[in-house]
Amino acid sequence: MTMYREMIDQDLLDLRDELYHLVIDKIDPESLDQIRRKNKLSQDQDICFLLKAIDEHWHNFKEIIDEKHQAEAKLLLAQIRHIRNRHAHQDNFDLRDTFRALDKIERLTHILRLKIRTKLEEQCTELFKQIGQNLNHPTEEQTPENQGLTQAYAVLLEKLPFRNVKMLDLALTHASYFYEHPHQVDDDNERLEFLGDTVIGLVIAHHFYQNNPRNREAQLTQAKISVENNANLARFAKTLNLEKFVKVGNGNNPANDKILADTFEAVLGAYFLDSGLEAVAKFMAPFIESMADLSAPVNFSQNNMTQGAHYKQKLQHWAQTKQKSLPKYEVVKSGLPHSPIFTATVMVENKQYGKAQGKNKKQAEQQAAFDACKRLGLT
Length: 379
Fold this sequence. Notes:
Strands 1-2-3 form a 3-stranded antiparallel sheet. The chain is mainly alpha-helical. It starts with a helix and ends with a helix. The protein folds into 3 domains: about 1-135, no CATH class; about 145-295, Ribonuclease iii, N-terminal Endonuclease Domain, Chain A, CATH 1.10.1520; about 305-375, Double Stranded RNA Binding Domain, CATH 3.30.160.20. It is built from 17 helices and 3 strands.
């Protein structure tokens, strides 16, 4: 613990030194004196004073921050003040706490282009390696906080036996909750959601690859797509009753399918970090097998002849109402002359939403539209 506290202490001092020169360059002395009197702070070079000064004179700093990073930077100011206060009150910082703290400081220094960001990047990389090395030999302390979380998530832990219950708690923290309670929680689950999306895709792909040795790439792709979509992920989440555990902000419905699907991804991403890929695959197997009868690709020629057009129309309506744009289809022809394969990709605002193959251009586009609708939960 002492090592981690010393690391945070030194990084806060280094951050203070660089912010001091930035603050006195952007804020006039009279305004700084007003901040000092208003907040009853005496030291200009105190890190909390400097962060508070930047927050109160935000308009002076917006010009040096890319517009896309301004909201994040504003939030990071508050988070780092909270980190400093925890540190000042002698709160314990374990390995993961230290990584999360330094990650926030590094992100702010990167946005502000401060010199210490290189050192912080190296520290975060090393801490992340240590977290990975400790996965198979967890040493989680049974603190009152951990005991409380273990009790709160007891039902869920019977199905997902996390070694580190704080990882599960983070996975259940929606961004809307974090936005409203930045001083109560350290982060939201969006990074874990990103990781979980990839892990789930890998597990599903491996399952179909192993269990369907005669299927070709196009068949395996369609089978994977039929399972890996928001509607199914939300259904999987409901079997775990995640709507009873996910923490959301006011005005957000924890039973919303999109929130549940994202939370399921975050939980599986956290479970991967906590217990490894084999544990995730074992947990996912019953879900994938329950979809076996639904995993075959849609054959529009055997359904209503207008079914393919229906999904294209459905996707177009979504794109127009939600993105104020239209879907664009890109088709590539490959294979042998007598047996061509058409691969279609559907894009909305330069982002890929669906991809599929067909025997002709029209069928490939229809399958791509179906893939996109599946991923968006529109089926």
